[in-house]
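Worked example (supplementary).
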Amino acid sequence: MERIIFYILALIIIAFAIASVSSRKMLRSVIYLLFVLCSIAGIYFLIDYNFLAAIQLTIYAGGIIVLIIFSVLLVHHIEMRLEIAKPSKQFITGLVCLIGLGLFLFTLYSHEFQVVENTATTNITDIGTKLLSYEAGGFILPFEVISVLLLAAMIGAIVIAKGNKLSEKNNPAK
Amino acid sequence: MIAGITIYELLTVTSILFFIGIYGFITRKNLISILISVELILNASVINFVVINKYMYPDVLQGVLFSIFIIAVAAAETALAVSIIFNLYRQISSVEVKDIETMKY
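After joint prediction of all chains, the assembly is encoded as:
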């Protein structure tokens, strides 16, 4: 049963990822990305990381997709078709990507992974205590750094999106 | 672990996703499409972290915590990229890569 669900999810991920990078309509491309992200959340549910799946659904599918849709709607006409690269360039890029993929897969399948059989489940309490622990292997420093980074990104986004309105107001003669 | 699924199949899926992202990153001519491709690449790496944590080191949580940090960085990056795209569109009325010659001024 889980096997079949995994194969369906993998098929959805790959098919919609290809559709997302090859669709010529901007909004459709974003919606295909939404399907990819939701299927990835399904994979997290399958390997029993429920908290990560919830994060994936709220931040990616809920936050990032909405941001990208906003930017698409503010920047584009919906009916506008994107211009795409020349067929020769597409072909060469596809070929290089296939060669790289073959190299990746060759390396993967020739490597023996030390897989540990387990059915352990992770609950949110473990993640929370690990994230806030001061002991060796704790993640309190990256946690604080990421909070400062998010604040900086927020302020930076506001300042950049505000544009040069402020400077225009200061010298109206320009 | 997913019953009946080996680590090889999961890593194959993420490799394919990663290279689809690379393909889109190189061939698309639009800033927002490039952003979408970057999201695909980041997601492939996040699944890799999670899968390797679950299959090879199930008693530690490093992979999950790092993937949470990657998701946070991706959210910050998207917010900044969208604001840069707005600013560019306001100044040069285009978000095509070929039109963007100056980011200053």
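Two points are worth noting when inspecting this output. The mean pLDDT of chain B is 87. The domain at 7-99 of chain B is CATH 1.10.287.3510 (Helix Hairpins).
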